[in-house]
Amino acid sequence: MEKIELGTADGATENIEKIAELFPQVMTETKNAEGELERVVDFDSLRDLLGDVAEGQRERYQFTWPGKREAKAEARRPIYKTMIPEPGKSKDWDTTENLYIEGDNLDALKILKETYAGKVKLIYIDPPYNTGHDFVYDDDFAKTRGEYDAESGDYNEEGGRLVANPESNGRFHSDWCSMMYPRLALARDLLTADGAIFISIDDNEVNNLLNLMNELFGQENEIATFVWEKMYTTKNDSSVVSNKHEYVCCFAKSVNTLSFNLLPRSDEMDARYTNPDNDPRGPWKAIPLYANGERKNGRYEVVSPSTGTIHLPKPNSHWRYRKEDVEKLISDNRIYFGADGLGQPNLKRFLSEVKQGINVSSLWKSNEAGTNDSAKKDIRALFDGDSPFDFPKPLMLMRRILDIASSDECTVLDFFSGSASMAQAAMEKNAEDGGNRRFVLVQIPEETTGQFSTLTEIGEERIRRAGAKIAAEIDESNKQLELGADPKPYPDLGFRVIRIDSSNFKDFYLTPGETSQESLFDFADNVKKGRSDLDLLFEVLPKLGIPYSAKIEERMLAGKKVFFVDGDKLAACFDANVSSDTIEEMAKAKPWYAVIRDSSMADDATHANYEELFHTYSPDTVPQVI
After folding, report:
1. Residue 367, Cβ density class (10 Å: 0-12 exposed, 13-18 middle, ≥19 buried)
2. pTM of the model
3. Higher local confidence (pLDDT), 385 or 235
4. Which of 3, 9, 123, 245 is the most buried (most CB within 10 A)?
């Protein structure tokens, strides 16, 4: 009987499997510390296969810092944690596809990878800028509790915490790089083949960020480092330079498959196109027919068809096109000689034939992408004039990123979500164009002062209020519709709150010396106290590749509660004393997967018949236990 493995995947094992797929001839077997055979890479064989390699003390170009090796190991290290559902904090729990995750984003990324690998179109993050006053995540779990107690910071149950990173710290830049490396490595795994990541940053760490991204994503996949004008006024609070900009670094998963959307043309651009000769093809703009410099066969007579006036290129210039091509353009009324037919010939470029949009610029002006001041106005508009978050990002900046890098149907991830600006922007964009952009936000519940006790409370309340504002605007718009017109529908304005916690199951990964005879009885029921059936279901979902946003239905089968998830994809029962009657009814529903607690089966006969019942009634179902 197949048993569901708990914990996230071991990154090292995944990498070995990738090597084995590419180069099966370099795989071998050896005994591990426990004397068991395991599959490993023969690096001598791999070196022979690859030829010359950089190793040991050999000089090479590389970006490194104290702690890099541990940061790489952290990205690969599995965790035994789960997502705990919080329906009471959520909005539209049963119907929404949006997620708000409370907890450390490193844990969140490792868990999300099980379900969302290769499925996120757009990632935006606004990490700590490492100014010496903001906070960075501390991932050094090797310290003792006493060492932690000697320092300031908030702890989770594993000792991880948020800590200030003053410039007096000897590892000032190293700590920031170690914090960012595993998170960026995992983020890349989540992106779709045509996806992109955008990262807000300032001068403190922009160079280190680019070095990290070049290593993890490849320098060839760097799209741009956009310069965002974060304020339009000049402040004299600096002794040398008034800093008015920040950066938004953008990298693609693969530049070969990335395609950005065009931005809308402005009214000013379109106003340059007129139609003085009433051409039926519409407005056009005059383009000089000549270009600078002499060119062979570029000097010939161009004759106006209405007046017979002969034109030659200006001195030291030439006609752009061959003579036969110009004659074709004249016959197609694409050359304009002025209202009287005597003017210098110009090519007519029609508005209908130009690119219907513009490429994004590397400079994001304040009137295009908002400012720090407009960001505060955005959040004050929702919180009755108050600003519960110190440094929000403007909605215009989020919209600029969504406009160029999202699609109508996609998943958007922000794992340093702060005030949840991206969630509001995504909902507003969906309301505008009818899209279905699903957001996944992650935020650690850092304590705050004021009306809200944590940052997650601020983010969740912002999404609620933004959703209510969007719904009210749609209601008002629908009131103005003509009789019989179809009303504008609501986008998805809800979100499921899920919280990162330890596994629902007791720690059975113990050595014999750590286990007493009395404690063995605890594992007869291996579920921790206080954990619900819904909690257990959410630990199962990623193991089967089912997203946390999947629809969940409860049915009673032979007196027991059974969860049906994502239609018939999963049937799961966690009640006690489950009989063969319930299992038979589950099998008759023909789900893709079936899951039941090993300790829940009513008797030995039920346990023995579990797989056989599915083989009889639904042979394609994969029955598992947990």
Report:
1. exposed
2. 0.85
3. 385
4. 123
